[in-house]
Amino acid sequence: MTDALANANPLLDVRGLRMHFAVTEGVLRRRSIGEVKAVDGIDFTIRRGETLGLVGESGCGKTTTGRCILRLEQPTAGKMLYDGVDLAKLVRKDLMAIRRKIQVIFQDPYSSLNPRMKVGEIIGEPMKVHGLEPDASKRAARVRELLGVCGLDPQFADRYPHEMSGGQRQRVGIARALALKPEFIVCDEAVSALDVSIQAQVVNLLEDLREKFGLTYLFIAHDLSVVRHLCQRVAVMYLGRIVELAENDELFDHALHPYTQALLAAVPVPDPSVEASRAFRPAMGEVPSPINPPSGCVFHPRCPIAVERCKQTRPETREVRPGHWVACHEVH
Amino acid sequence: MPPLLDVRELRTEFRTGIGVVRAVDGVSYTVEEGETVAIVGESGSGKSAGAMSILRLIPDPPGRIAGGRVLFGGRDLMEASDEEMRRIRGGEIGMVFQEPMTSLNPVLSIGRQITEAIQQHRGLDRAAADKRAQELLTLVGIADPKRRLKQYPHQFSGGMRQRVMIAIALACDPKLIIADEPTTALDVTIQAQILELMRDLTRRLNVALIIITHNLGVVARYARRVNVMYAGRIVETGLAEAVYHRPRHPYTVALLRSVPRLDRPRQARLDPVEGQPPDLTRLDEGCAFRARCRFAIEACAKSRPMLEPTEEAGHLAACFRSAEVGGLTGAAA
Asked: Lesser CB count within 10 Å: N end or C end of chain A?
């Protein structure tokens, strides 16, 4: 899916990424009964300074994709070229160095922060581990600075996570991710657990930080409205594959893949007049098991426009308009 | 004709280590027969506690229904005996909760759980209850009901489990269903299927529905009327169309402005509700929203504004400056 000219020098270039997990049975004599193709051959690039949205429903492989990039998983196949270096091939020693550049913000600010550590220690720890700021008082000053950058009172350094609200905790998670001055941050459902009013604050913060520090984000989310607001380009995943990828407005206003169209139609808009005028039929059926995914195009059993060919051959990903990629036999 | 449900000045408290939390603090509203009413609010607004109080499902201790009346079909549920309440729950009032996995018993077959409800409430024999269970599964769109009734909850997907919950809620021909975040745990395409199903069935069977949600889009698509809750109180109520297009409480205005919209191109920045949600153990006599409110004046610290009518019928707001709020937002919406 790489367009050599348009993405002359992407920060991250993912090619043919596959992550298959063995499914085993039995307690004493484990035997393999198949595999889950969590990510099944995906290609995308992320340009320097952009936010790429990766959307899809549970089990589509979006989180696994993020975990592969972070090398929390060792991918089964494929390349992940970060600044020309293949992340998939890195060994332990090099991983440490790359993790200074690539950080993560997780969904749940309740479980991703150690409850026994003070906020200052949580944010300071990565600096300590990476030997970035060995001097304790300088480190403390940096922690206070990071708290301020993330919109928190520097005095929060002496508090514990349970003394804070959900929104404040997520700001601590962001400050921790920033501690090593990264270039690239994987945001995995980073605002999904927050209440509407707080979510907007954190979305704005993420945007401000991207501008201020020249960050690049992979924004993994199931909430399409937030993705529309935050991302420059968006990739839609279904059962381990990217079915559509395009610039933000192009994708939301001119979605071509039947799955993307179903997904967009399913999201209710907070406006009773708009809703009253929308004709809407929910997508039929449910997402099939990734252990034995459907043949051909994985969406064909639920697809309103599927033809015979969709059952047999997996559709190629084609660029149907400039920068707009679709994997569907029936989109021309 | 009196409304199907008439909640008056309902108050529910929880005793915690750091003080008494007034989770529901004088809530009044009505639901007409066959009507869908949404209760919308963020975490801690009291939307779930309020609905659980109607059914007297508040764990005591630490909770306690401290006052108010809940008139349903001519009776005050707050005065009903425990025996009567057991008959009403799952009988005249059906319930659908967020997490179908925890509300279904994992060691009983789906069939057993549905027929149990039917046998208990309607005194049907086993064969008749089985037949009714099959009808119900078909009604909620589960194919091959005979085989599915023998299966256990873990053999159902999240969406299918929620369909089973709806079948159980409908089992005894209720007049009202209370659905507490019924689709929050589900994926968006499944959420749409379940909500469409609930809308279709409640219309067809003329069942009233109270839908409790934090999702402003769900309210816009499915509810006729909406109650907006903040810190244990209803701060605005009215037809969904009126509340969304002509909001009269600053919290409603701020909430609607803070959500990103799928149908609109990206704007520069979102307009969030500033500040943090209120600490419910430290509420004073003033308006709970005033610390985050762009309209706050001195009077807001002295007493909590009551729900007052606006010039639109059935549209009420609890704000001293609601007329000015309306003047500022009317054009924008």
From this structure: C
